[in-house]
Automatic annotation (TrEMBL):
Residues 4-128 form the Amidohydrolase-related domain. Belongs to the metallo-dependent hydrolases superfamily. One of its GO terms (molecular function) is hydrolase activity. It comes from the Bacteria. This is Amidohydrolase-related domain-containing protein.
Amino acid sequence: METVAALPGSPFVLENLAKPLVATGVFEPWASDLARLAALPNVDYKLSGLVTEADWALWTVDDLRPYADHALEVFGPDRVLFGSDWPVCTLAADYGQVVRAAEELMAGLSMTERDAVFGGNAGRLYRLNL
């Protein structure tokens, strides 16, 4: 966190939602640490890797929801990037299942916010012409 704070002009992307312990349902200290990172404006997060942090055989979207909701709350949808975590995700789900889970987790967002999460934010951050 000190490095990120010391480099305010450099963007950072937090991969795999900082690896929460979804399978065990542990929320802290992950949630507090994520909120501290979200307070730094040069940090974005990638909504990826949740299915492989859950029970590989028995996960449901409801298992993932508290973690995705908290990340959306502290970062806001303008700093969220969807990532499939393919091919690693295939340990717990196929690509289509991962996409459908992410779509369900983002269903409460406006169309503009969903477009940002599923492409626009990555385009901005990585300077892609999408």
